[in-house]
Amino acid sequence: MNFDDDEKQKLIEEVHAVVTVRDAKHTNFVEFRNFKIVYRRYAGLYFCICVDVNDNNLSYLEAIHNFVEVLNEYFHNTDNFDVKDELCSGRPVTDKDNAILEKVEQDKDIYDIAKHI
Amino acid sequence: MDSYLYDLKEYECGLKIDELSNPGYVDVRVEGDAHSSKMALKIVKGNFERMFDKNLTDLVRGIRNNKDNEAKYIAQCMEEIKVELRQENIAAKANAVAKLTYLQMLGYDISWAIFNIIEVMSSNKFTYKRIGYLAASQSFHADSELLMLTTNMIRKDLNSQNQYEAGLALSGLSCFISHDLARDLANDIMTLMGSTKPYLRMKAVLMMYKVFLRYPEALRPAFSKLKEKLEDPDPGVQSAAVNVVCELARKNPKNYLSLAPVFFKLMTTSTNNWMLIKIIKLFGALTPLEPRLGKKLIEPLTNLIHSTSAMSLLYECINTVIAVLISISSGMPGHAASVQLCVQKLRILIEDSDQNLKYLGLLAMSRILKSHPKSVQAHKDLVLACLDDKDESIRLRALGLLYGMVSKKNLMEIVKKLMMHMERAEGTLYRDELLSRMIEICSQNNYQHVVDFEWYVTVLTELTELETSAKHGEVIAAQLLEVGARVCGVRAFAAYECAALVERAASDTPGPATREVLYAAAFVLGEYCEDDEVMYGAISPLLVCAGVGGGPMRARAVCLHAALKLAARLLRIYEKKGYQDRAIELTRMTLMSVRSLLCSEDMEVQERAHNTHALLALLMRRLAPADLSLPADTPVLDEITQDGLLVPHTDSVDQKEDLELYDEGKEDGKIEAFSGGLIADLADMFDGELKPVAPKAQKKVPLPPDLDLDSWIEHGYSSESSSSPDEEEEPAVAVFAPAPPPERPALQLTPEELELLREARRQQQANNPHYLKVDSPRSYQEEEVPVAEMALEVPLQLHTKRSDKYLITKEFSQKGKKDKKSPKKKKNKKEKHSSESESEGESWVGARMHEVNVGGELPEGAAASDDEPPPPTDDPHRALDLDLDLPLREDELLPARIQRYPSLPKEKENKKHKESKKVKSADKTSKKSEKTDRRKKEKKAKHNKDIEIDLMISTGNNVNDPPLGKDNNANSEETNVNNHKNSVDIDENNFKKAKTEKHKKRKKVSKEKDGSTKNKKTSKNGKHETKLGYEEALGISTPSKEII
């Protein structure tokens, strides 16, 4: 799915509205349009993945965690000021529409392997 | 992100060192050769200038420091970036592009910089290239116009010696690949799938998915390789391949059934949970197509459920087991055990303190609920506990489950709990859900669990008092109407409750919900109230309600009308008892109240008020001509005949208010009392009972082809006009038969008769329903009239349908299936309430049952014949499959991705075919594929034959020359290498494929042995296919014979 910039912005706002109002005690899944959002919060940072309704929520939740761990792995040696800040500063929510999700999925496998090795 | 940041830093450091360590650099160079010194000067100059450029870190800091005028700051940065992009220095450009990428993430448009990004992508330096690709992956779209410029550059990168460059190109490409790019680069990517480096293999495999999406034609050629990668030694590549196949198979599971054995092996051997989840999900999609697969799956899945500690895997296993259980027809041993296991595990999930697990547990429970309600019911306590959860989504899930949890015993308790929730629920979403669920669980299966309807009516009125929204009011109103109409025993009580409700509404400005419910309340009151005290008390509140302003309110006219109904009924009671003064008082009171409505701003109310007023004034003049309440202009009315008065009244009602139907009760002896028959006439207008009927039947009403509508109306009209002088203008519309018609014949409809009816219905579909409604009641009322017997079975049919229509108008939501259970329920109900109504109710129930049975059957048959003009959905597919291997047709076929076969270029197939003859190694597992349905076999056989045809045709051709020509359109040298590789792959592949090939062969041989089998098979293909199949059989038989 490709969105033009306006749509993207709107999407981000919507997801933001849906996700940030939720209490920490709530589940990490929200139904959104025809999909569902699996999100996870790390301090002020939300990671959101929009997935099909049939997809396995838990595995995506773990994928997010995996992703974060890998990010951590990559950056804890270097000065991680830029990266983390960059995600934090611009938008509290990084939204990943399906196109990006694909990338994340690919990454997921890479990280998976990284773990294996 | 990571990489380029790092690179920037590196570059920055380098720059500084450069500047610091070579202060005399410029001077030295100036002395040298003029040209080179000029160049050097330029470089150094560029470097100097760049010292003052912002890098990405500066940009981020800058944006943060300029929070107040961010837009202005960014606009300024944009200008700087544009300047930087104009420089020739690639480092400057890369820096600019990096900044642009960041700005793009903030939502700024950078599409104008595509060309610059491509420039940076084409840099020779990896660090810059990386920045370029990152920007491209963020900002390019498949429809970007300049993408075609990148084809050769990307190809170069893909074939780069550096695996990271190739990997970079793959990752970047995956984000913006277009149809053209996919077409041109598919071959290169396929080559990478065979790379020696797992890193590249994996990326290439994943990339192929994107290629397939954009360029479906690539699927067939690439499929064999993809399949091969399922058994790649590297776990990463393997899991990538599993991912790709799972994604593909999710959309078209049936094309991937043949892969089930491979996946089955993977599932039992792999320990990679990510992969297992994908595989299990895939199996979940496959089992509905192949139930036998499900049986095989149950055991390993239950093992996994027992052994795994990963919740996500556990959840997926349970999901698939549920899917399997649903697809397998019952009667399987150990089936109950696995359900039990699932439910137990789910219980653990729900009991977990983690909200996510709780949520998922409930979600999966609801799936089991559909097929195995009993096993879920055992965990009622758990679900009820979840209703008190803090999280709304969990409560909603639990609510959904409640539907299957209620029983006669606990219904009241549960509803009470829900009512409490309702009172303190804050979110409208949750409230909406609560209310609809509450009504759903009460009304499910035709009120199966409602023991006490008085309770239910009370609940409904209480819900009204909660004053929610108008939407809710509608739902409640529909329920009130339904209960009132269908449960005779509770009518008196319902009327009483409704009276109270109306009174409350009259004394207070009603809220949005009450406004809607009033509609139903007024109707129930007017229709079912029997107690004269209640009636008397309700009239004036009703009239007050009719005068309530503030927004449109459909209930107002109904209120007024109900008041008239009540007044008429009450008057009759008084007349019978001889209470003339009471009657006069009532009439006077009503007249006075109605008068205020004569000028109502609501048209409908006004018109009815006038009608009511005129009627009552007429009556009043008869009762007490001197009464003060009479309008001054009565003389006008005097001249109007009674009939003339009544007709407009009924007219208006009929047009606007289809719920209100009047019956000309055929009262033989009119009571001659103080009103001189006027009251009786008035009351007669509202006599009769409205009956509920099965839904959806109105449009299915059959009309016999020989029925002459005109003659019917003539007869009915003339014969009835004597008994009911009240309505002459449009008797047909208003007439309603009060007496249930003889039901027996309806049940005795023979199949032929039914068939006839269906036939008739088909012909009559276009007919105006009004005509149908018109003739049916007539036919009952005039059974003595010879004409009425003309088409006996038809009128009966019509009767059931006709009442159906009323049901529809009342928004009855009950389903035809559920109706069978209802009679018991109703009977129980009736017994509890009143013995009086019992017999009436019984007969009514009986009638309804008939209706349902008859009405239910017909629609089904009719629907089967009308709505589904037998289009076996496989037919188009099979038609396509016939041409699978014909080169011309391939283009058409591939976009839909329906092929399940690896589409090797022809020469490969031929080779394979030859080899498969040699490699007839016995493979036991081939039997598994035999189990797949017959159609698949046929497909295979056809497929195989097509190959043979090709073989015959292309025997003279060079074997190395692929007919598809796809492989050799790129650089020819490369292609040759590729082809070579491919063919090697295929040779290996053939061994794996031997089983299917052998199977195909066997099939083919059997066909050739017996010519008649062909005929049988083609006949199985269905009428649609016969021609094609026949042709094909002809075409194929020749070559195959030649071969043998």
Automatic annotation (TrEMBL), chain A:
It comes from the Eukaryota. The keyword Protein transport applies. PROSITE patterns: CLAT_ADAPTOR_S (PS00989). Keywords: Membrane, Protein transport, Transport. Signal peptide: none annotated. Pfam families: Clat_adaptor_s. The keyword Protease does not apply. It is found in: Endomembrane system. Residues 2-83 form the AP complex mu/sigma subunit domain. Its main location: membrane. Belongs to the adaptor complexes small subunit family. This is AP-2 complex subunit sigma.
TrEMBL record, chain B:
This is AP-3 complex subunit delta. Residues 968-979 have a biased composition (Low complexity). Belongs to the adaptor complexes large subunit family. It comes from the Eukaryota. Residues 749-885 form the AP-3 complex subunit delta domain. It comes from Eumeta variegata (Bagworm moth). GO terms for cellular component: AP-3 adaptor complex; axon cytoplasm; endosome membrane; Golgi apparatus; presynaptic endosome; terminal bouton. Its main location: membrane. InterPro entries: AP3_complex_dsu (IPR017105), AP3D_dom_metazoa (IPR010474), ARM-like (IPR011989), ARM-type_fold (IPR016024), Clathrin/coatomer_adapt-like_N (IPR002553). The keyword Membrane applies. Keywords: Golgi apparatus, Membrane, Protein transport, Repeat, Transport. The lineage of its organism: Eukaryota, Metazoa, Ecdysozoa, Arthropoda, Hexapoda. Residues 817-832, 992-1006 have a biased composition (Basic residues). One of its GO terms (biological process) is Golgi to vacuole transport. Residues 697-1044 are annotated as: Disordered. It is found in: Endomembrane system; Golgi apparatus. Residues 801-816, 874-894, 905-935 have a biased composition (Basic and acidic residues). Adaptor protein complex 3 (AP-3) is a heterotetramer. The keyword Repeat applies.
